[in-house]
Design goal:
By secondary structure, this protein is of the alpha/beta class. The protein is 37% helix and 18% strand. It has an eight-stranded mixed beta sheet with strand order 1-2-4-3-5-6-7-8, sandwiched between helices. Strand 7, helix 7 and strand 8 form a beta-alpha-beta unit.
Length: 257
């Protein structure tokens, strides 16, 4: 009996290790729609390590900032149209950032790869405009945005459903697994957030079952003093927009630009 339990345990751990990439980066099977409304156009952003990111860009109106939008792990840039339209109607330039391996982009996603993608997206926008740049990220995208905010100059950061670290989320979900030994993509935002010196807005749903709100609160505890944490009662992980999160982000960006 003990041998059977041991074999089952080891087999399960091995499966989790092998399958972790597909669990963390379950990119949808889409090449994305072509944005034409509100001035959006598809752009191909080239990374220093040779990947091509199928993103969507709208230049800012006059001297308005541009907002880089980073989506979650099971999402795609092409699915951010509603959020993009709200930002665009407020006058902001918008870049819907796509990751390697997602939405028709080349490559295979990884933590280090997504960090490279974030910096390449920022550098693309900086080549188009000298106006300020802000970051707006959801879920997994929050890990990319936090790292980027420590590497490039931005004026504000908005995080929806953020985590303190993917390591902490995995440990909570699989308490019996030696996560610290097996996890390849740790996304430890909690070690980076304190280095950011611009205003931060964090928005989290009280009923989030994917990334429970406790993870967002722990990240906020390590954030600098100019961080605001907004708990939305009744909201989950993927429906924050229905509770006015984009309006909150627009107001925040306008108040800090």
């Amino acid at each position: 009996m003990l041998i059977s339990i041991t074999i089952f345990f080891l087999t399960t751990i091995a499966a989790l290790y092998v399958l972790q990439d597909s669990m963390i980066f379950p990119s949808p099977a889409t090449r994305g729609a072509v944005y034409q409304e509100n001035g959006f156009r598809p752009v191909s952003i080239h990374t220093p390590d040779g990947e091509s990111l199928a993103s969507f860009y709208r230049p800012p109106e006059t001297i308005q900032p541009t907002i880089l939008v980073f989506h979650g792990n099971g999402d795609a840039a092409a699915y951010q149209q509603s959020k993009a339209n709200q930002l665009a109607k407020s006058g902001f330039g918008v870049l819907l950032v796509e990751y390697r391996g997602y939405g028709g982009s080349s490559g295979v996603p990884s933590e280090s790869g997504l960090y490279i993608d974030g910096m390449a997206a920022y550098d693309f926008v900086r080549q188009q405009s000298s106006q300020p740049i802000g970051l707006y990220a959801h879920s997994l995208g929050s890990g990319v945005a936090v790292l980027l905010a420590t590497k490039r100059k931005i004026f504000a950061l908005v995080l929806e459903s953020p985590f303190d670290s993917l390591m902490a989320v995995a440990k909570r979900r699989f308490p019996w697994v030696p996560v610290s030994l097996l996890l390849k993509h740790k996304f430890q935002s909690d070690l980076l957030i304190g280095k950011i010196d611009v205003p931060i807005l964090m928005i989290h749903g009280s009923d989030d079952r994917v990334i429970p709100i406790g993870h967002g609160k722990k990240l906020a505890e390590k954030a600098p003093f100019n961080t605001r944490f907004e708990e939305i009662a009744g909201a989950g992980h993927n429906n924050l927009q229905q509770f006015g999160s984009v309006d909150m982000a627009v107001e925040f960006f306008k108040s800090t630009e």
